[in-house]
Amino acid sequence: MTNEDLDIQQQELRKEVRTAASEFASIEFKPSTAALTYHFKLRDFSHSGLGLFVKKDSDLLNNIKVGDILPAKYHKGIATEPQQLRVEIRHISTPANGKPENHVIVGLLFLEKLVG
Predict the structure, then answer these.
(1) Which terminal Cβ of the chain has fewer Cβ within 10 Å, N or C?
(2) Segments forming the whole domain that contains residue 102
(3) Domain CATH number, residue 36
(4) What is the pTM of this model?
(5) Residue 8 resides in a domain
(6) Total count of domains within the chain
(7) How big is the CA angle at 51 (ends 115 and 54), to the nearest 5 degrees?
(8) Could you tell me whether strands 26-29 and 69-75 are parallel, antiparallel, or unpaired per DSSP bridges?
(9) What stretch of H or E contains 91?
(10) pLDDT in tens for each of the 116 residues of the chain?
């Protein structure tokens, strides 16, 4: 099977259409128990989702857990107006290759845009 065949097969297995993060995409949110608002570059980790690299010693990890749903501002690029939406924390896991060291991946699921 060629790489092209694998790409087509992988696309067919997806249940939903997902837009990849642009090079400058970022997300901003403030967990209800946190004192700070956090702003991260979005990473396109796999065919199944977007996420963030977070340092293992970050206070953010004390303020979020899998299943949390948070209001967020999604910045598609450098000069774009952010979209108000909700994101769900889908997983907090160690990168498969262990790099970057001392980081975890926080997987996100974009739910819906917020009006107003």
Answers:
(1) C
(2) 15-113
(3) 2.40.10.220
(4) 0.73
(5) no
(6) 1
(7) 115
(8) antiparallel
(9) strand 83-93
(10) 454 544 444 443 334 444 445 677 899 999 999 998 999 999 887 665 789 999 999 999 999 999 999 999 998 877 678 889 999 999 999 888 878 889 999 999 888 765 54
Distance of alpha carbon 35 from alpha carbon 101, whole angstroms: 26
CA distance 16 to 13: 9
Tell me whether residue 7 is in a domain: no
Residue count of the chain, please give it: 116
Q: Which amino acid is at 93?
A: S
Q: Side chain identity at 35, as an amino acid letter?
A: A
What the block records as the tokens of 71 is 């209001």
- CA nearest neighbour of 21 among 49, 44, 48, 51: 44
Domain annotation covers residue 1: no
Neighbours of 53 (CB within 10 A): 16
